[in-house]
Amino acid sequence: MSAFKNKRTSTGYALATAGAASLAATSEAQAHVKWFCAYDVAGQPQGLEQVLCANFEGLTVLALVCLMFGCLAEGTPLGGALLNALDRVTARIRTDTELLVRATLGFFFVSLWELGGIILTPELKTDVAWIPWFQLALAGCLIWRRTMPLTGLGIVFLFSFATAQYGVFHLADYPIFLGVAVYLICRGLDLAPFGLRPLDIVRWTAAITLMWASIEKWAYPQWTDPLLAAKPQMTLGATPELFMQAAGVIEFTLAFALIWTPLVRRCAAIILAAIFVSAVFEFGKVDAIGHSGIIVVLIGIAADDVRMAVRARHVVLAPAWYGAALALFLFLYYAGHAALFGGFETLPVI
């Protein structure tokens, strides 16, 4: 009996340590590993029986508790006060969200032109000489509102060009670019497709991007081994495996929160933006350029003042929708990888 208690205590301590380590050092984990380490998209991912372990389940339960607590708080006077405070603090950002997006993307495309040989993100290399100049032209189109849609169409073209070069599975990391493209087109033409606000469209694509990236942390934790070996203090004593599990759970939870209730998603956007900004100080210019687009999107989400009535069902249904999203992304990642690289006979069995 005492042995069981000791085991349970040590597991709880490990989970607490991993959670603290992730919150303290997730900035390093948020650096896109493909930009700094060797990777093999076609390689066999870690089996689901290894991903869905006891520590993973414990971390997921802890994440759900935090998510439900946020939903509960939102329906109270405290939640209303927090929303009012956020509205006041972010008023200027909210007014100038479009301008901030245009300026940041202008910096992004000019930087890609300066670096040369890159399609949208640092690991998408190209020898095509006109690509950098095309991206510089996209930056120029952002100067005027009427030409913003041209930049949006150009992003769609570059995304399609990169997909043809690197494959659908690789570009599944970056649906945020398509969301930004739609945002620019809709804002430039004053469109609201299907009654959806452009900011909501880019918010959903940001959530999808980050949820997919968190699955990759569980499927290929070994890609981050060089970073963890070079910076062992990142884990704060947790094992690399546990650290990557915790980092993935935190990222997935914050990404899921982006599609939930207003206070929850605004807080998640602030935390994610802070994480990405802090990673820039560790990883430098490449990280600043690569993540600039998603950082400005997260700032726009944090400033969004749209309200909705938060009801008991939002609290009750949070675990169900979270579980459904987790199951869906795990299935899409593993089934998609098996279909494209190994055949369905390689699908892992739990």
Please give the number of β-strands.
Answer: 2
- Over all CA atoms, what is the radius of gyration? 21 Å
| Overall 3D form | globular
Structural class call reads mainly alpha
Largest sheet: 2 strands, antiparallel
Physical arrangement of strands within the biggest beta sheet: 1-2
Low-confidence stretches: 1-29
Proportion of residues in helical segments: over 70%
**Total number of helical segments?**
17
Portion in strands: under 5%
Task: Summarize the helix and strand pattern as letters.
Answer: HHHHHHHEEHHHHHHHHHH
Query: Distance between termini?
Result: 29 Å
Summed over residues and divided by their number, the pLDDT gives a mean of: 83
Compile the SSE list and pairings.
Elements: H1 2-29, H2 33-36, H3 48-51, H4 54-74, H5 77-89, H6 91-95, H7 97-115, E1 118-119, E2 121-125, H8 130-141, H9 148-166, H10 168-171, H11 175-189, H12 198-219, H13 225-230, H14 240-257, H15 262-283, H16 285-303, H17 312-342
Antiparallel strand pairs: 1-2
Can you offer a commentary on this structure?
The chain is mostly helical and 350 residues long. Helices cover 75% and strands 2% of the residues. The chain is built from 17 helices and two strands. The chain has a two-stranded antiparallel ribbon. A hairpin with a 1-residue loop joins strand 1 (118-119) and strand 2 (121-125). Helix 8 runs antiparallel to helix 9 (148-166). The two termini are 29 Å apart. 41% of the residues are buried.
